[in-house]
Amino acid sequence: MEVLFAALQAATLALILALLYRPLGDYLARTYTSDRDWRVERGFYRLIGVDPRAEQSWPAYLRGVLAFSLVGLLLVYVLQRAQAVLPYSLGLPAVPEGLAFNTAASFVANTNWQSYSPELTMGYTVQLAGLAVQNFVSAAVGIAVAIALVRGFARHGSPTLGNFWVDLVRGCLRVLLPLAIVGAIVLLAGGVVQNFAGFTEVHTLTGGIQQLPGGPVASQEVIKLLGTNGGGFFNANSAHPFENPTAWTNLFEVVLMLAIPFALPRAFGRIVGSNKQGYAILAVMATLFALSLVALSALEAAGRGTAPELAGGAMEGKETRFGIFGSTLFATTSTLTSTGAVNSMHDSYTALGGMLPMLNMMLGEVAPGGVGSGLYGMLVLAVIAVFIAGLLVGRTPEYLGKKIGPREIKLASLYILVTPTLVLTGTALSFALPGVREDVESTSIWNPGIHGMSEVLYAFTSAANNNGSAFAGLTANTPWFNIALGVAMLLGRFVPIVLVLALAGSLAAQRKVPATAGTLPTHRPQFVGLLIGVTVLVTALTYFPVLTLGPLAEGLN
Amino acid sequence: MSTTRSTLRTHWVALRAMLVLTLVLGVGYTAVVTGIGQFALPAQANGSLVRDADGAVVGSALVGQPFADAEGAPLPEWFQPRPSAAGDGYDGGASSGSNFGPENADLVAAITERQAAVGEADGVQRGEIPADAVTASGSGLDPHISPAYARLQVARVAEARGLPEAEVAALVERFVQGRDAGYLGDPTVNVLRLNLALAEL
Question: Is the pLDDT of residue B201 over 90?
Fold first, then answer.
């Protein structure tokens, strides 16, 4: 019976996403190709002083992305440092420098790693004017970069990729804001709170005193999921009943995380002029998602390990209303997108179950991945896949009418090297640097033994891939983790963006190569299989050794 | 235009864009959603508060609360919620799971201890105790227990209150909440609502 209910829930999710695929994908494609501005947008462009019809070369587009993100970083930092004088701060003091840097980097990089406990650290003004705003704009930046890459494939002999400011504003005003308002109302109806009441003291049934938290939660919850950000209003994130009150809001929140990432392949297909190309990318994403979901659900339902077997089920860190499958569905979604929200504590998962979220992130978060970042990550892997296929048959590889030459393949190769380098270096340094190692082992690690090493590996995997979930026993509010993870998040976000925009510029400048009998068709099952293989192989070869030291060792013990 | 001037100009545009977007997406959007919540859905927006027969607020239907004495010892006359890792237990200001890993010796010891305590209080064998009774939830504020754990507590609660067991058992069945839409999530019992009804028997 349990399996049947789980299958029905998964089928409901698949149906909703299938119904959204075409309308939302087409809407996204129209949003980013239309040459008509809304009136409110024209006012906006006048205010900020840009000409919406001015096309940008890839370096100019990149400068816009970097300047906007730098300003965002500074603003979130300053808001936290000035918290003591801001209204609605619940009497909380300024956030310390190291933590403020880590948090600013985290939210600007669409990661939402949280080294802090929100109830005890962030007042309402920082949450809504700093963190929630970044939840919108960092998501809009991700989609903009993905669209710029798609334009690289769609344009021929073009020196430009579009206008970053237009893509940013349209992403915020036409896509994210309307969906967020509708989503917030749905969550409100389900019981998510939205007020400015602070903590309310109530006398419980037995005469004790309980503090009930308040806050503008619904407005932030919806955009944290829709923009695949993941930063919780409360410490327990989406396990908290005021963030995720029921089993149906749980499914709705999963839909919010997946809606845009799964619709973007459609927008891609539309813009390059072949819906079949979109379906091929969608098929790769959906297959990997389904496999990962089944694996994690089976592992948690089996409940192997000393504590789960003693208790009679892997319910430590899971909420009764979601059950095992509501938890594994959310965990799979959160780590295969770049969200990183949690509705159950991954640290308490079975050893092999806890490895799955890590593996999901290590895949590069491409199935379907974060808003925008998932699509550009998958398209880079597609470039690698056609290159490998080209090597096998001895032909110059092409993708969507563009030659994949030495420059393109260098950029794609550098792209897939960035996050593994950050993850493995960061984890290794945590145990190799004298002084740091003692601090990591005595202060940060929560669970002893092998599991403690998994906590550190998880942290760097999450930061470098801009996920934000954690093996949350780890105490990350230390100088080492605040700085190292902050740097990993920024490099893990912006180095790939530089490479993707360079790739986009190089593709846009090319003329179209006519397809011949020898061209590899990239919309057939053969290519879908090849791309799945490349995605899994790149990940497995990179990370297998370190996984054997952590979760594999613990799980097979 | 020189590179320096162009870079400066780009940052000036970025700063203005960030400020306008902060006003629209931070302040404006939050105000709109708060307005909708407070006017159209005030009960939910303010925390789904639960009142007793006299109209006094006793908690939230969504947030679990302890049914223990000042020392934290469970009171036998109330249905007990799950163990909690939020502060000293069900601390609404410090939501948290235990984050203990599956092989953590402290967790194994805690589960063993909880099983012994439940076994003694309710007179059942270890194997009959459902997992949710001996594990802490992710939030530490889980308002629910499984129907199995609620049924297991019926005899103890009835005896402590001097009520007929059948009456308490019938009450529990009334408070068993099925899966959402018949198939989403797990069946639950809301401990606060059940105990509130129990107090009025």
Answer: no
Would you call A399 helix, strand, or coil by DSSP? strand
With 60 as the cut, is the pLDDT of residue B1 above it? no
CA distance A290 to B154: 41
Kindly tell me if the per-residue pLDDT of B123 is higher than 70: yes
Distance CA A530, CA A526 (A): 6
Judged against a pLDDT cut of 90, whether residue A539 lies above it is answered with: no
Model confidence at B194, in pLDDT bands (50, 70, 90)? very high
Q: Does residue B52 contact residue B196 with C-beta atoms inside 8 Å?
A: yes
Contact yes or no for A205/A234 (Cβ under 8 A): no
Q: Concatenate the DSSP letters of all residues of B2-69 into one string.
A: -HHHHHHHHHHHHHHHHHHHIIIIIIIHHHHHHHHHHHH-HHHHTT-EEE-TTS-EEEETTS----B-
Q: Return d(Cα A267, Cα A278) in angstroms, integer.
A: 8
- Average pLDDT on A475-502 reads 97
> Using CB atoms and an 8 Å cut-off, which of residues 116-135 of chain B contact chain A?
127, 129-132, 134-135
CB contact under 8 A, B179 and A8: no
Instruction: Determine the pLDDT at residue A519.
Output: 87
8 Å CB contact of B104 and A190:
no
Q: In Å, how far is A187's CA from the nearest CA of chain B?
A: 9
pLDDT at A475 over 80: yes
> What does the DSSP assignment read for B148-164?
HHHHHTHHHHHHHHT--
Rg (CA), chain B: 24
Please state the rounded mean pLDDT for residues B22-51.
Answer: 97
Structure confidence at residue A394 (pLDDT)? 85
State whether the Cα torsion A315-A319-A321-A324 is positive or negative.
negative
Residue keyed to tokens 């100009």: B9
Is-contact A149 A504, C-beta < 8 A?
yes
Residue A125 scores a pLDDT above 60: yes
Q: Is B47–A318 a contact, with Cβ atoms under 8 angstroms apart?
A: no
pLDDT of residue A396: 83
Residue B2: its pLDDT value, please?
Answer: 67
Q: Which residues of B touch A323 (CB under 8 A)?
A: 185-186
In chain A, helix, strand, coil percent, each to 5? 70, 5, 30
The type of residue at A342 is: V
**What one-letter code names the amino acid at A380?**
V
At A341, list the tokens.
Answer: 């929200």
Of B18, B52, B142, the CB nearest to A75: B18
* H-type alpha helices, A349-432: 351-362, 373-393, 406-432
Distance from the Cα of residue A117 to its chain's centroid: 20
Q: Enumerate the residues of chain B whose CB falls inside 8 A of the CB of residue A50.
A: 13
- A346-361 mean pLDDT: 97
Find chain B residues with C-beta within 8 A of A129's C-beta: 22, 26-27
Report residue A121 as tokens.
Answer: 């650290």
Question: Could you report the predicted ipTM of this complex, rounded to two decimals?
Answer: 0.97
Which residue type sits at A529?
A: G
All residues of chain A having their beta carbon less than 8 Å from the beta carbon of residue B139 are 234, 236, 239-241, 319
Residue A485 neighbours by CB under 8 Å, 6+ apart? A102, A106, A113, A115, A426, A459, A460, A463, A476
B194, B61 Cβ separation under 8 angstroms:
no
Neighbouring residues of A387: CB distance < 8 A, sequence distance ≥ 6: A397, A404, A409, A412
Distance CA A551, CA A543 (A): 12
> Between vectors from CA A221 to CA A215 and to CA A227, what angle results, nearest 5°?
140
Structure confidence at residue B72 (pLDDT): 87
The pair of structure tokens assigned to A199 is 């903590």
Q: Say if residues A246 and A262 touch (Cβ distance below 8 Å).
A: no
pLDDT band at B80 (very low <50, low <70, confident <90, very high): very high
Q: Whole-model pTM above 0.95? A: yes
